[in-house]
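[Automated response] Your request has been received and processed.

Submitted sequence:
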Amino acid sequence: MLSSEEGLFRRMAPPPTQQTMKERILETADKLFYLQGIRAIGVDTIAAEVGISKRTLYNHFPSKDALIAAYLERRFVQPRPSDKPPAEQILATFDLLERRFAAKDFRGCPFVNAVAELGPADRAVKKIAVAFKESRRVWFRERLNALGVTEADALATQLVLLVDGSIAQDLVRDDPAMARAAKEAAKVLLRNAGVDVGDGTAKPVKGKRSPQ
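Generated structure:
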């Protein structure tokens, strides 16, 4: 049941725009590729799910490779801007992972999955995957720079390894607590870099530069 506030918002909100055929195809491919695997799903299955012919699908995506690239680009979403302190933003990454791990439709990182399925020889897919992973590493590095961490680049790499490692562990163990364990490891790394993680145990670091 909607609250009065939610009901008011619904009434004031503009009517949703109807999806284009291209958007419908891509949304369907996204769901099927992620949940069942890229190799397991052919364009016939996607077309049938949408309720169109293969010819119509190919009018929007000239090949399955083009559809795969569009699927990965659709998943290439930047984190939302936040005015929270940098250390809090970094650690919140692992809280978000824990919630995602608990979802029934979680199947790991779509970029890692794509490279694992299609192999490193698929340069287009690998290029998108590398770009995504590097964007996340840069996101961590920017926040570490704001904290004045001297070895921000190296620490950013260590943090993304914790993220990817926790994803792999959750897939094997089906245990969202893996994200919590990764968060605790991230706290250790941040403390050792002289960052206050809210428990007053940050270690002083010689030569730590002032935040920009």
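Summary generated for your ticket: The domain at 4-75 is CATH 1.10.357.10 (Tetracycline Repressor; domain 2). Residues 20 and 95 are 35 Å apart (CA to CA).
If you did not submit this request, please reply to this message.
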